[in-house]
Amino acid sequence: MNKADLVNELAAKLNIPQYQSRLFLNAFQEVLTETLKRGPIVLQGFGTFEPWNQKERQGRNPRTGVTCMIAPRKSVKFKPGKFLLRDLNSPK
Fold it and tell me: What's the pTM?
């Protein structure tokens, strides 16, 4: 599923026009991004988004085989909540 599919699903589920669901989704992404800069986000039952710092590490260009250093950067880890896991693993 891509962003356009998600916009369509939200619009159908909430019975709103697609432009409103797109506005909601864009605002949600902005809020998540800004909040992750300050610390973790816990959505009870759904999961936890947590920023973490990746260290500098050695990588390799797969095309040329030349090794290089990959700069440190911030990334995000997601730990699913128990209700999300329950729903994903329940038989249909």
Answer: 0.76
